[in-house]
Amino acid sequence: MIYDLLIENITKNRAVSIAEAEKFCSFFSAKTISKREFLLKQGEFCKFEAFVTEGCFRVFSLDKKGNENTLYFAAKDWWLMDIDSFMNHKPSDLNIQALEDSKILIISQEDKTTLYNELPIAEKFFRIMFQKSIVAWQRRVVRNNSLTAKERYYYFTTRYPEIVLKLTDRQMASYLGITHEFLSKIKKQDKIQ
Amino acid sequence: MIYDLLIENITKNRAVSIAEAEKFCSFFSAKTISKREFLLKQGEFCKFEAFVTEGCFRVFSLDKKGNENTLYFAAKDWWLMDIDSFMNHKPSDLNIQALEDSKILIISQEDKTTLYNELPIAEKFFRIMFQKSIVAWQRRVVRNNSLTAKERYYYFTTRYPEIVLKLTDRQMASYLGITHEFLSKIKKQDKIQ
DNA sequence: AAAAATTGTTGAACAAGTTCAACACGATTA
DNA sequence: TAATCGTGTTGAACTTGTTCAACAATTTTT
C-alpha cells in the first residue's frame, strides 16, 4: 500500500493508534515527479508539505554570487518542505528538484491546518520531528566549522552511501560547501593513497 | 512580575488564554546564574529547559582538535536547551555558560512531560518555536557556506549589536567559525577604510 | 598592590580552498 | 549521425584563512 512507509514513519517510537494513523494518511495524496522536474521554485509560495516514498530530491538556494547552495537531499522516508515559506506565507528562497523519477505523498496548506485541528497527535508528531531536525542542523553547523572539506566528504559518503550514488559531483560539492573542482582533487588524492 | 517576559513570548502571535498562559508559567521556577557559571557541561545529562529573562549565555561544544565551537548565544527572551540530550536521555555534547550574571526560568524534564500532557497548547507552541528555529539554522548553514568571514562578521555585528557588546573576540570568532587572530585582522582592515 | 591568567594585536610562513581556462568524456537533443 | 550541452579532471596563479610566536593591555585572583 502506498501509505505503508508513511504509517511506519509516524508510528515509529510513538503511541499512535491504527485509527489515528489512518486518519493522518487520509490527508495525503500520492503524486509522481519526473527526473529534473521542480516541485518548488525560488519565488513561488510553498503551499504543501511532502513525504518521499520513492526517488530522491535536492533542496537548494541560489546566493547573490549565483552559486547553488544545497541545503539537503531527501530520499525515501524523508520529509520535504520549505518551512519558512509555508509557515510565513512568503515567497520561497528554495528550489526543490527531483534527482530521479520520484513519488511523494503530499498535503496542502489548508489540509495541514485541518490535520492539526482534528488530530492532536499530529502536533506532537511534528513537534518531535522538528526537534530531531534541529539536532541534525546543529551538528551540520559544527561539522562545517570544525572539519576540513576532506573530512566532510568522508563523513557524507560513509553516512549516506545510497544518496551519493544518485548525485553528480557538482551536487555533492554544493552540499559540502566547496567547489566541484576541489571535490575532484579530494577524490584524486583519495585514490592515490 | 518575573513571568511577564515568558507570557509575552508564549502569547505573541498565538491565541493563548490568560488561564493557559498562567498554567504554562506555573511549571517554571526562577533561578539565578553567576557570570562564568555553567548551566550544563559536556558529558552531563541535560534535564531541563530554560528561558532567559536577564543576562546572556553561550552554548558551545569542544571538537576533537580542542577548539571551541559556539552554536549560539542566548540573551533575554531566548530559550536555552540541549534538545538532543534532553530528548534522547543521553550525555550532552554541549556546554552552556553564563557570560554575565543572569536569570532564567527553568522547567525540569518531568514537568515538561506533564506540561505537554496537561496543556495541549504547549505542543503547538513548541512545535511552532522549533519550526522557527529550523529556519534560522538553515539560514546559518547557507551563510556559513556562501559568505566570507568578513561578510559573516558584518552580518552578525549588525544583526545582534547588543549581544556583541557582551562578547570577547574569541567567543565571537568561535561563533563565526574563524580564529580569533583572523577576526582581529578583519577588525583592523575595517578601521582603516 | 602584586602576581597570574586571559585577552587582543601583529607579522611571517604556511595550508586550504578558489578561480579560470583548457580538455576529454558521456549523455541528450536536433 | 552530428551537434550540443553538462560533467569530471587537471594545472597554475591566486585568495582566504590558519598557525605559531611574541608582545602589550586588561582582567582576575591572591
UniProtKB/TrEMBL annotation, chains A, B:
Lineage, top ranks: Bacteria, Pseudomonadati, Bacteroidota, Flavobacteriia, Flavobacteriales
Alphabetized InterPro entries for the sequence: cNMP-bd_dom, cNMP-bd_dom_sf, RmlC-like_jellyroll
Pfam families recorded: cNMP_binding (PF00027)
Signal peptide: none
The protein, known as: CRP-like cAMP-binding protein
Ranges where the Cyclic nucleotide-binding domain occurs: 6-110
Protein's organism: Maribacter spongiicola
